Amino acid sequence: MMGLAAIGAAIGIGILGGKFLEGAARQPDLIPLLRTQFFIVMGLVDAIR
To answer: Which residues form the V-ATPase proteolipid subunit C-like domain (predicted)?
Structure first.
């Protein structure tokens, strides 16, 4: 059961990372803000599993 939770968290973090890169490519001047939000949400996703 824990394996499924780990797989779900890994998929979520992968999608999150992809969206971060898309946003950074579109708006390079917002990278500091996006990076902060990325790490906050990544920590929440990892903590919930």
So the answer is: 1-48
Return d(Cα 37, Cα 18) in angstroms, integer: 14
Selected from 1.20.20.10, 3.40.1650.10, 2.60.40.10, 1.10.10.10, the CATH number assigned to the domain covering 2-48 reads 1.20.20.10
| Residue tagged active-site, from 44, 46, 47, 49 | 46
Is residue 46 annotated as a catalytic residue, yes or no? yes
Please name the amino acid found at residue 16. Answer: L
Instruction: Give the integer Cα–Cα distance in Å for 28 and 7.
Output: 31
Structure tokens at 26: 């579109």
pTM: 0.77
